[in-house]
Amino acid sequence: MMSVCARCSAMAAMACSSRSAQTIPTMQTILIVDDRADERLAMVRSLAAVDFDVRETATGRDALRLARMPVLHLIVRDLVLRDMDGFDVLRELKADPVTRNIPVVIKTAFFGAEHEQVALDAGAAAYFTDTHDAHALAAVVRQALSKRKSA
């Protein structure tokens, strides 16, 4: 049996009571793809704190496999991974009839219109460069999800 310390329990209660009116009624599943564990954990925590069901992986190959989950709503992925080029993964996702409609948010430290344009041309729903702003990440994810609903 797992026990929860009083501090963690109090923090969880505070988080539950402070949810905003923007909380999504049904948990949507987000896949985080980043080969850096610290970045991945930060994104998982940020999105889980605003009521997303968050899955994670460190590789492009796993991302392609996990993208076939029937409940997946969106992918947030780093542009640079050790095992596969980020643009190649994006193109494969968009070429596959099973995964082509899943919005992909590219999260990267690369600033510049050239990378952003290549990502958007390859089918990315958004290009996000401020990797340490949890509120901005949640806003980008919500925006990409709302575009999917209206499409």
Chain-wise SSE layout:
Blueprint: H1 6-17, E1 29-33, H2 37-48, E2 53-57, H3 60-66, E3 72-78, H4 86-95, E4 104-107, H5 113-121, E5 126-128, H6 134-150
Parallel strand pairs: 1-2, 1-3, 3-4, 4-5
Helix pairs in contact: 2-6, 3-4
Summarize this structure briefly.
The protein is α/β, with parallel strands linked by helices and 151 residues long. It has helices at 6-17, 37-48, 60-66, 86-95, 113-121, 134-150; strands at residues 29-33, 53-57, 72-78, 104-107, 126-128. The protein contains six helices and five strands, in the order αβαβαβαβαβα.
Question: Would you give an account of this structure?
Answer:
The structure is a single chain. With 151 residues, the protein is of the alpha/beta class. The protein has one domain (26-150): Response regulator (Rossmann fold, 3-Layer(aba) Sandwich). Helices cover 44% and strands 16% of the residues. The protein has 6 helices and 5 strands; from the N terminus they run αβαβαβαβαβα. The chain has helices at residues 6-17, 37-48, 60-66, 86-95, 113-121, 134-150, and strands spanning 29-33, 53-57, 72-78, 104-107, 126-128. A 5-stranded parallel β-sheet has the order 2-1-3-4-5, sandwiched between helices. α2 crosses α6 and α3 (60-66) packs parallel to α4. The chain is globular and about 30 Å long.
